[in-house]
Amino acid sequence: MPVGLFRVCLLVITAIVNHPLFFPKENGTVPENTEEIIQKMKEREESLRLEQLRLEQEIADQEATQKALEKAAVVVEESKEEKVRWDMWTALSMVIFLLIELWRQDFQEGNWQDTGGEEDDMAVLGKAFKGVAFPDKAVLASFYEKRILATTGDMARMREMVEGFADDLLEALRSVCNRDADMEVEDCMGVGSMYENWRVRKPFVCDLIVPFAPPEPYCFCCQTWCSGDSFPPEEQGYGTIKVCRADEDATGCICDKTKLGEDMLCLLHSQVSSTRPSSEMEDLLCFKNTQYLDADQVMKWFQIAVTKAWNRISHKYEFDLSFSLLDSPGALKIKFKSGKSIAFNLTPVVQYENSDVYFISHFPRSSLAADIPSSTHWFLTFAVYERRFIQLVSKTLPANACHVSCLQILSFLHGKQCSLTGPSGLTNYHLKTVLLHLLQARPSQDWAPEKLEARLQDMLKFLEKCLHEKKLYHFFIGNGKVPAELGFPIIFQRAEPLNLFRPFVLRRDIYRKMVDTFHEMLRNMSALINEYTVHIPLAHTNGIRKEPL
């Protein structure tokens, strides 16, 4: 027992003696180890804090990504719903567009030409027409009798003289030409205002067209803008004329379009026949290195041929013949020894297939073909059909109808205004086109002679409407209501309507000048008419009778 107590006491004493708090100076490494441990613990705590921040940042990024994905899913879902709604609107818009297009085609085929009643006409009027003092029936009748009829009495005699001389000149032209190599010239035809009896402005000029054809074995293969191939908008109304052999397809063989190998030979064409000398095609008045008829070459050939023909027959006549205008190669002038002169235009043309539509090389005194794309592009003229249409409609109108009188008065006013303010883009052909549309739209009884004033107003209103909309459609092209009696080619009836005012859409200066000239003509109309009208007592205003044309 004592031994056990002793052992316990010895153990307690040993533990107390070895405790570090009792001997700090003897054990100096303890505090240093503690600071190191504390430093490591701080570093560990800092690393744990940084790790915690990194983990929190990753968690935040994941949450943001998750939210972005959820938002994108919502946007995709909304876009799908919007696309469904947009597809519905697109389909609806397409249906509306098709309905409008169908209505527009019907509108252009003739419904738009109908001027309707007087209320519809008044709705078309612009500010410039309101307040204009329009001459009454008596003043118009007196003006027509004194100014128009008095100056147009010699037209028939002049036409007869010019046609007789032109036939003699063309006969001489045929005699000086080589029948085996030169173009074959046919008989001339009169077209335009002189032959439609509505020309009023002097000097009177007869317009004659002369069809011609190539020598055998060649022929003309004509292609128009509405024949199927794509033509740019600025070439609408034009066509090209290809000189082909009579036994050759107009489109040409495939050997002309593809490069055959040296060991391959076309069974239809030999190398000699497929390659024509350039000089041969130039002799046929084609553009250089092409088979397309060149309008400039044709006019040079025609001038030389006319000069030779005149030299052959000049001894038969007691007057001189000369070319009057440099920019119009077919413009000729007869000069008498008395000092008087007669001007006429002799223009070569090419017949389109078997119709009375012609390719014309140039338009004398006209801006219709002012910007020809190239000399191989020929403008199409429907002058023969226009003359026939007027003659056909005139047979159904009342006696002494006022349709020609309206065109004559409007042409006179426009010419007078242009002499005061200068020429504009508006031409007599535009005025005639307006009349053609109204002749088709108005019933026959509306053209009675006593309705001259109303129909003249209709023409002015229609023209103002076209100027405002910048749209005046060609009467024949795209018009499905052309009388079948004319035998008009169906290809042009089915074509897109041709806007005669299209060249003025991009040329605002010319369009502005044209509109200003029209408005000035409206304001000066009464003064221009009264200048050539004698005073008429009011008691006789209802007794004026219009003289027949």
Write up what this structure looks like.
Residues 404-477 form the Mab-21-like HhH/H2TH-like domain. Residues 1-20 form the signal peptide. It comes from Horornis vulcanius. This protein has 549 residues and is an alpha+beta fold. It has a domain at 122-248 and 281-532: Beta Polymerase, domain 2 (2-Layer Sandwich), CATH 3.30.460. Helices cover 47% and strands 11% of the residues. It is built from 14 helices and 10 strands. The chain has helices at residues 2-17, 29-109, 118-124, 137-149, 155-176, 271-274, 278-283, 295-313, 383-394, 403-421, 428-441, 452-469, 490-493, 508-531; strands at 184-185, 189-191, 205-213, 218-224, 238-245, 319-323, 331-336, 341-351, 358-360, 378-381. Strands 1, 2, 3, 4, 5, 6, 7, 8, 9 and 10 form a 10-stranded mixed sheet that branches. Helix 5 (155-176) packs across helix 8 (295-313), helix 10 packs across helix 12 (452-469) and helix 10 (403-421) crosses helix 14. The longest helix is centred in the first third of the chain and has 81 residues, at 29-109. The N and C termini lie far apart (170 Å). Mean pLDDT is 79; it is low at 25-31, 108-126, 256-260, 267-278 and 535-549.
What are the main properties of this structure?
single chain, Beta Polymerase, domain 2, 47% helix
How does the SSE layout of this entry go?
Elements: H1 2-17, H2 29-109, H3 118-124, H4 137-149, H5 155-176, E1 184-185, E2 189-191, E3 205-213, E4 218-224, E5 238-245, H6 271-274, H7 278-283, H8 295-313, E6 319-323, E7 331-336, E8 341-351, E9 358-360, E10 378-381, H9 383-394, H10 403-421, H11 428-441, H12 452-469, H13 490-493, H14 508-531
Parallel strand pairs: 3-8
Antiparallel strand pairs: 1-3, 2-3, 4-5, 5-10, 6-7, 7-8, 8-9, 9-10
